């Protein structure tokens, strides 16, 4: 068996040898396994806008905003800072990581603060995000730019400044505030409150979010509305590079090639000399800069006088304000140290310093909300006792977004920042264009109520814009208005009529569209129809002509803006000067943007540029014997005073003595101090005409004869003696 196995093995070897020999006779390539197909290396997906982002401050991972905490112990970004100084913190705040929305739950390791990365803004939470809450507690609803505003809102507000003052019970605005004890018995010092950096959204939204310290009793500009498409963060800034879209700015603003050029931009809506240097051509950046210098000087003076120690400011060194130990007024290197921080704060100085910092830490404040910043600086200077006589705070009426005409509806329970349809035509930036393009008009209801139709409610505006009067589709052309319908139902045009009786357009018709009042003879008669003239009627309500009804005054009897008594004749359109040199229209006498009268034009014919001194007649209308020194304005004033006296005399025997306050609605008050309610038809007509004169302060220029006529007639109708007067 063993031999058999040996033989088999030998045979196998021989056979294998034969095979090898056979193969060797015809050389061939050694067989190899076929290579398996290989896949191309996977390409990383291209990241949109990566290069743009890498050039931005959001990607500056080596910068202070992201490296500040590297040397801390522990080395982590605290919850109070993580939202805006780390991507993970921002996602945490948004709830994108599944956590509670609106708060950061945990600190972020400093090593993970690697800029504001793509996922911070591009995640499911931001896609649906439409609101942002500011440090003041105010919530704003907006578009995609709420992502930006979460961090560019600052960290303080008027409310937090006031809260600190209240916490320290600092009732003396000029006393240095002493420390208080916390719950553990530790000293807590009354220190500076820092708005933080780049609070652009707070500047943009102005009084809505109260990012600056707004002094009680004063009004401030609201959101700085810009033109459509350039009214948000991402409308004006590239959302990845963060750079301003300068080329887009150049579409409307001349001589703009770089972002630096924007500092020199100044529009006709900002023609006040805010910093009082006599230069109204410089850009708004420089106006703000001028006010900053004035405020800083006032702060230093105040600190030395009230706190007993000089104050210095250094923008690049925390906590920014330092003691002027050598009293040279300059921030020397040895003074700019944390150990030398200014600590002698009074409440008044804190408010001013806060606003000073607000104006500086938003480097684009001159574009984001320049008027708001101007107001904060001006008010801070004034509050410190500085001389503001050469400074300017407010703009011309049409652009004064901080005034009652535009801010009336802020915060009202029913309004909530919304202007009702009856007011939008003249109290919003978009109302007049819509009224013109939609064919709006004025109607009088059967009960005498004057209503504007063709409009709906609109959000409150921050003053007029260019597009209020200039048609955007054919800019800079103004809207074409052929005729204007007044509250009386009468239609007129400064352009006159053609041969067929059709009204012709004129630019001044734009002015008439709002400067026409809101009531008329017609609405008064409708409201008083069938009532006994001398019977007190609780249903009678005072009708207010409204403000600056200059157009109604100019056209006089043609539009019946004042109350015209039956059987009397009244002057119509006041044609001023001779036909070849007429200055009859609104733009003839007023600058169309700053609205001020062109006083130099008066001197062309008159010996003075003071309209109140002008008198072109020797007729003694008011019977006071003064026709030499008194201008026509004096004649009107005397007659208005006489009417008021006659109203009081009449009211004493018809319901109770009436008093008037031009600054308090409803203007006329009874003996109890409440709104006057004992109206007779005769008294309410006279009151209407008295208010008319008060609310058109230029009535003596616009149409003096018409005004004198209805004043004398009102006095006469109340039973007054008009024998000494001369009715034109």
Could you name the key traits of this structure?
single chain, 728 residues, mainly alpha, two-stranded antiparallel sheet, 29 helices, 33% helix
Class by SSE composition? mainly alpha
- Assess the beta-strand content as a share of residues: 5-15%
How far the N terminus sits from the C terminus, by CA atoms, comes to: 158 Å
Can you give the mean pLDDT? Answer: 92
Shape: elongated
Main-sheet strand order equals 1-2
| Residue windows where pLDDT falls under 50 for at least 5 positions | 1-29
By DSSP (H or I, 4+ residues per run), the number of helices equals: 29
Computed Rg:
38 Å
User: Could you estimate the helical fraction of the residues in percent?
Assistant: 25-40%
The main pleated sheet reads as: 2 strands, antiparallel
- Compute the number of strand runs: 16
Would you write up a description of this structure?
The chain has 728 residues and is mainly α. Among the domains are: 50-129, no CATH class; 406-472, no CATH class; 480-717, no CATH class. A hairpin with a 7-residue loop joins strand 15 (659-660) and strand 16. The radius of gyration is 38 Å and the shape is elongated.
Task: Give a topology summary.
Elements: H1 2-25, H2 50-54, H3 64-67, E1 76-77, H4 79-85, H5 87-94, E2 108-109, H6 118-121, H7 124-127, E3 131-133, E4 139-141, H8 146-149, H9 158-167, E5 180-181, E6 187-188, H10 200-205, H11 233-236, H12 246-249, H13 284-307, E7 311-313, E8 321-323, H14 347-361, H15 365-368, H16 370-383, H17 404-407, E9 418-419, H18 424-427, H19 431-437, E10 441-444, E11 450-453, E12 458-459, H20 466-469, E13 484-485, E14 491-492, H21 508-512, H22 521-528, H23 550-555, H24 586-589, H25 599-602, H26 632-652, E15 659-660, E16 668-669, H27 681-695, H28 699-702, H29 704-717
Antiparallel strand pairs: 1-2, 3-4, 5-6, 7-8, 9-12, 10-11, 13-14, 15-16
